[in-house]
Amino acid sequence: MRRTLVSGLALALAAVASVYIGDALNLGLPNAYLGIAVGGVLALAPGGHKLGRLAGFLLGMLAALVGYAVSAGFVPQSNGGEAVVAFLIIALATVISLLGFGRMPLWAVLLGVAGFAGAYDWVFEDNVPEFLTTAPRTLGTFLVVFGLGYLAGALVDWLLPEESQSAEAQGSDELETVGSEF
């Protein structure tokens, strides 16, 4: 319960900081809730390798960016086109996770897809022809807010590790691989 309280307070302070930092530096940061929450989830989620989760998240964001590029340049703006792009993004996220051999969980890759889509979709729909300028700007600003949330969550995770993580670290040093049960 203490970990939950400290995590929530740390993420709330990170959200406040992102608003004021963004305003002071005139960064035009997207809403703080999404980036801070996504960063906090990725940092505080139990199990797995933190570096693998972070790598999966970043590659998931890249997969979403590729999907938006395909949508902007090659696919008609229709329900059918959107369905094709959605399929391609999720398929690419799955392949990315598979290539991680269990070190990049699918949920982390999908969180990256969802995080970027949540930050960028309304910008994209508003002005599709400006993809080459709006996508990098949104990606950069979202990563700033995400980074603050991730930093706050990682700090809490370092200071107040879950009991299950402490037991895991003392237990087995074997590398678990998803799918090894087959």
What characteristics describe this protein?
single chain; 182 residues; mainly alpha; 76% helix
What does the model show?
The longest helix has 29 residues, at 131-159. It contains 7 helices and no strands. The model has no long low-confidence stretch (mean pLDDT 87). It has one domain (2-158). Helix 1 (2-24) runs antiparallel to helix 6. The protein has helices at 2-24, 32-44, 50-73, 79-99, 106-126, 131-159, 163-170.
Q: Helices and strands in order, then pairings?
A:
Layout lengths: L1 H23 L7 H13 L5 H24 L5 H21 L6 H21 L4 H29 L3 H8 L12
Overall residue-averaged pLDDT value: 87
Shape descriptor: flat
Rg, alpha carbons: 18 Å
Helix content: over 70%
Could you give the order of the helices and strands? HHHHHHH
Structural class: mainly alpha
- Report strand %: under 5%
Let me know the largest β-sheet.
none
**pLDDT under 50 segments (min length 5)?**
none
Count of helical stretches: 7
How many individual domains?
A: 1
Number of strands: 0
What's a concise summary of this model?
The protein is mainly α and about 180 residues long. The protein has helices spanning about 1-25, 30-45, 50-75, 80-100, 105-125, 130-160, 165-170.
